[in-house]
Amino acid sequence: MIALGASGRDPLDITLDSVRDGAVEMADVSIHPSTLEHQAQVAEAHANPQLASNFRRAAELTALGDHEVLALYEALRPHRSTAEELTTLADQLENRGAVRNAALFREAAEVYSRRSLLKR
């Protein structure tokens, strides 16, 4: 299986010359969700379901911009968000089809509450 970039471009078409000529865009070198799903299947086949879940959540995040992903990461840091903020983010993620990430944010709201890790 040849891993395609997010643009669908074959990585064998990406050369140093094409980069220098400006013919390569970020989407050409960004990971494609199907590549992450393939990695999830490999992880499952090697008895690593946690890693498989991580790859599948990452695949969902490929639809978001870099700034959005960084904002989500920041929101999950201890004492950065209230339970309501995490739940709102979960709803937004779910509405955008990122159901695994939405579940993670809902779980974080519950766990952070029990462990006193929410913003006050």
Helical proportion, percent range: 55-70%
Q: Write the H/E string, N to C.
A: HHHHHHH
Question: What integer is the average pLDDT?
Answer: 93
Can you tell me the number of structural domains? 2
Radius of gyration: 17 Å
> How many beta strands in the DSSP annotation?
0
Structural class comes to mainly alpha
Sum up the overall morphology in one term.
elongated
Q: Tell me the span between the first and last alpha carbons.
A: 48 Å
Low-confidence stretches: none
How many DSSP helices?
A: 7
Percent of sequence in beta strands: under 5%
Q: Describe the main β-sheet briefly.
A: none
Descriptive report:
The protein is built from 7 helices and no strands. The chain has 120 residues and is mainly α. It has 2 domains: 1-62, no CATH class; 65-120, Hypothetical Protein Yqey, Chain: A, domain1 (Orthogonal Bundle), CATH 1.10.1510.20. The protein is elongated.
Chain-wise SSE layout:
Layout: H1 16-20, H2 26-29, H3 33-45, H4 49-61, H5 66-76, H6 83-95, H7 99-114
Helix pairs in contact: 3-4, 6-7
List keywords for this structure.
120 residues, mainly alpha, Hypothetical Protein Yqey, Chain: A, domain1, 2 domains, 62% helix
